[in-house]
Structure formats: C-alpha cells, structure tokens
Design a protein that fits this description.
- The chain is an alpha+beta fold.
- 51% of the residues lie in helices and 18% in strands.
- The protein has helices spanning 6-58, 60-68, 150-154, 159-182, 184-199, 214-264, 268-300, 312-326, 347-363, 420-430; strands spanning 77-78, 81-87, 92-95, 114-118, 121-130, 138-145, 308-311, 332-336, 342-345, 370-378, 381-388, 434-440, 444-452.
- Strands 1, 2, 3, 4, 5 and 6 form a 6-stranded antiparallel sheet that branches. Strands 8-10-11-13-12 form a 5-stranded mixed sheet, with helices on one face.
- The longest helix has 53 residues, at 6-58.
- The chain is rod-shaped, with a radius of gyration of 52 Å.
- Adenosine-5'-diphosphate (ADP) is lined by residues 356, 360-361, 364, 388, 390-393, 401, 406-409, 416-422, 445.
Length: 457
C-alpha cells in the first residue's frame, strides 16, 4: 500500500485534533447545560407549585370550585410540571393523575424537593400545604421528570451542530491546501535532488522564494552547499586534468629520449646525454608526485605533521643560509630573524614554506638584486616577510597564483611546477594562518605569512 503523503498526513492530523477539540467543547457545553438545566427544572417545579397554591389562596371562585369538586378545564401542566391537588385526607381533588406510585407518596412538608424513581426514570416532586380561609385545606403537589433529554432541549437549535461535520471537512480541505503551499519548497528540494542524482548535473539549483521563513533559509543553505560542492567538484576535475597533463609532458620526453637513444645513440657520451635527460624528467615527475602526496597527507592526517613548539628564528636563518649558497644572478640575500621567536608549527612543513617563498624570490629575482627575509613577532602572531625586487607579478595573474599548476610565466622558462604557492597557502592554513602578496610588475613582490603563535591542536 502506498504510504500517505506528508501533506495528507498533516491535514488528517490537523483535522483529527480539531475534531477532538470540537468533541471536548461539546462535552463541556453539555455538562454546563445539564447543570444549568437541573437548576431550571427544580426552579420551575417550585414555581409551578407555589403559583398553584397562591391561586387557591387568592382566587375565591377557584377555591370554591375545588371545594365543590367542580373544576373543569384547569391547566395542570405547567412547564413540564404536573400538578395535583389533594384534600387533607389524601383524596384526589383535581389535577393530572396517572395512577402511578407518585400520586401515593406521603406528603413532604419540609419544603424540600423529593426524588423518586418510577419505572426506571427519576422524578422530582414538591408539596405545599395550602390553607384556605373558609375551611378546606389542600396539598398541592408538583411532579416533573428529573432528567430531560438533551436532544429535546436542543430541539430547534440543532442546525449549528449539523454544520459541524461540514466545517470539519472544510478545515481538512483548507489544511490540505495550506500544507501543500507550505511544503512546496520541500517538493522543490526533492525534485532538484532527484534531477541531480539522475543527471549528475551539479549546476542545478532549488527554486528560491524569499519568504523569510525557515524553509526559504534552508533552501538558501542547500543552494549555497551545492555551490560549494560544484566548486570543489570542478576543482577536483581540473586538478585531475592538470596533474595528468603535467605528468604527460615528462613521460613523453622520457619515451622520446628512450626511442632516440635506442635508435641513434652510438657512443657512450650520447647515451649518457639521453640518460641525463631521462633522469631530469624523472626527477620532475618525482617532485610532482611527492608534492601532490604532501597535499593529500596534510588534508588527511594531522598525526603525521604534528605541531610542536619550534624556534622559528633558527629555522629561518638556516633556510636563508642554505639558499644563499645556491643563489644565482648575484642576488644578495638578507635575513633578519631574531632569537626567541617561537611558534607551534611543524618544522618540516614550515621549512618547506620557507624554501618555496625564498626559492621563488631568488628564481624570479633580478640580476644583482636583493631578497629580504624577515621574521617578527606581533603579539599572538608571527609574521614572515619575503621581499624581492625582481620580475613582480602582473595584476591579472595575482588572483590566480595560489591555484594549483598556475604559472604566471607562460613561456615556462623556469623549471617550476606551479605547486609552490598553493603549497605555501595550504601549509599556512594548516597552522591556522594566512598568506598574502603585494606585487608590481617589474618592481618586485612581497609575500607575507602570518601564523598564530599558539595553534589549537
Ligand atoms: P612555480 O613552480 O611556477 O614557481 P609557484 O606556485 O611557486 O609555482 O608560483 C606560481 C607563479 O607565481 C609562478 O609561476 C610565478 O609566475 C609567480 N611567482 C611566484 N613567486 C614569485 C616572485 N617572487 N616573483 C615573481 N613571480 C612570482
């Protein structure tokens, strides 16, 4: 059996609760009515008996007629109260007698309403002793049913009750329509999710109506999440294509060199040249693979690259010393890294970050230029600056230099992989820090890495 839709279920629940509330209110109304009715019945009984007693006392003709046994056509049924008149010996003088035990009851002179059951039904009776000035005295007795049917009492007022099922049906239909409207964003979400699942097209979005409620906020959040998913999916795709492209070049060179060596190399020197070319490309591939692995490891495990209290000054000085040994183009490398600057970092990663920034500054520096490396502590953070007066970066390249495999130098004359700066960024982020650049084409660049001194593990 097909399960009921959320819309139908909500409407049914809503109507059921409404029905229960109506039933409860009706029960309450009946209870109030019954209490009120009891008072009314008793008041009517006493009033009818007292009226009759007064009449006997006040209307001489009537009293005479009673004494003479000549009463005709008198009205002894008043407001459902049956009236009976007896003389002091208990003989029935006038009234509505029906020959049942009610009529034979002893008189109650305590001015209290008595209750009696006859044939399974309860009755109230009330007696009053009437003294007539000229002799004959009487008992006036009133009898009335103790419970009256609610339905007979409601007689003539039933129409609103009959309308109730109609109102409930209307409530159900209204609820069904309203829930349908409220749930529309959920249907849209479901449809979009289904479409994305079927087509794999992550560019689809849920139609957004800014109603300011929780569902429109949820729609906005899911769409934003889809944006992020699409971005990272595209980035992943781009990465895979770039990585295979970058690997294809050295592989093609290696294959071409091998083919050339096998067919053409005659002497040991010629063969050595081929092997050297193969080794160079192999080295490039190895660096590429190592760096890519590093990215993955950093993303996957913080265990491997533990952050510990490290003397950053010593680390920077050592990196500068190593790089000044291999500096080309007569570049002067100046290093300012005081003692006592420490931070919770992974020394291996921080050294890699330094190598990439200082290496780039030297590689893209100018002949006889300067590279300044400085490390400073500012309160809770440590700032590393690497400044060069070399090639600089064009404004249009600046936003892209952090992307994987992006290289501003389109001629690719330098031997970079286009992975250095993305790695720097990733290492800074790994330590909870940031990296930024200021650069002007032809004038040089300044790279700045700011790390908090205490990183929460
Ligand atoms: P690469 O391996 O090509 O150096 P990077 O990711 O380290 O890759 O750098 C990306 C690009 O940014 C480089 O190709 C280069 O064009 C530019 N770049 C990086 N550092 C500097 C610098 N100090 N001066 C000028 N250009 C730079």
């Amino acid at each position: 059996m097909r399960r009921l839709t959320l819309k139908t279920r909500l409407s049914l629940w809503f109507t059921l609760i409404l029905t229960l509330i109506c039933a409860l209110m009706l029960a309450l109304a009946f209870a109030v009515f019954t209490t009120y009715d009891q008072h009314r019945i008793r008041d009517e009984l006493i009033e009818a008996v007292e009226d009759e007693a007064e009449r006997i006392e006040d209307e001489r003709d009537y009293a005479d007629a009673l004494a003479a046994g000549r009463v005709r056509d008198a009205d002894y049924l008043r407001d459902d109260v049956r009236l009976m008149i007896y003389d002091e010996d208990g003989a029935q003088i006038a009234g509505l007698f029906t020959q049942n035990e009610l009529e034979a009851l002893p008189y109650a002179d305590s001015e209290r309403i008595g209750t009696v059951a006859v044939d399974g039904r309860s009755y109230y009776y009330y007696d009053e002793w009437v003294k007539v000035r000229r002799g004959n005295d009487y008992w006036v007795r009133g009898v009335t049913a103790a419970e009256r049917s609610v339905w007979s009492a409601l007689d003539g007022h039933l129409a609103p009750l009959l309308l109730l099922p109609l109102l409930l049906a209307l409530a159900f239909l209204g609820g069904y329509w309203l829930t349908g409207r409220f749930l529309r964003p959920i249907r849209d979400m479901d449809r979009t999710a289904e479409e994305i699942r079927e087509s794999g097209d992550l560019s689809r979005r849920i139609p957004y109506h800014d109603t300011g409620d929780e569902l429109s906020a949820l729609t906005g959040h899911i769409n934003a999440m889809l944006d992020r998913l699409e971005q990272s999916f595209n980035a992943e795709r781009q990465f895979a294509s770039n990585a295979s492209h970058e690997l294809r070049t050295p592989v093609s060179v290696i294959l071409a060199q091998c083919e050339y060596g096998m067919e053409n190399a005659q002497t040991a020197d010629e063969l050595r040249e081929v092997v050297a070319a193969v080794q160079k490309q192999g080295g490039r591939m190895s660096r590429l693979i190592e760096t890519l692995l590093l990215f993955t490891r950093m993303e996957q495990s913080t265990e491997r690259y533990r952050r510990e209290a490290t003397d950053l000054g010593a680390l920077v000085r050592s990196a500068c010393a190593d790089h000044s040994l291999i500096a080309e183009k007569h570049i002067t490398l100046h290093c300012e890294a005081p003692d006592g600057v420490t931070g919770r970092v992974n020394a291996e990663l921080y050294r890699l970050l330094l190598d990439n920034l200082v290496g780039n500054a030297l590689r893209y520096g100018r002949e006889n230029g300067h590279v300044d490396v400085s490390l400073k502590q500012h309160g809770d953070s440590v700032e590393l600056t690497v400044r060069d007066d070399g090639a600089g970066i064009a404004a249009e390249d600046l936003p892209h230099i952090w992307e994987m495999f992006y290289r501003a130098d389109k001629s690719r004359s330098t031997r970079g992989l286009g992975l250095g700066l993305p790695l720097v960024k990733q290492i800074a982020a790994y330590h909870g820090g940031t990296v930024s650049v200021e650069s002007e084409l032809g004038k040089g660049s300044v790279f700045r890495v700011i790390l908090p001194t205490s990183v929460i593990e």
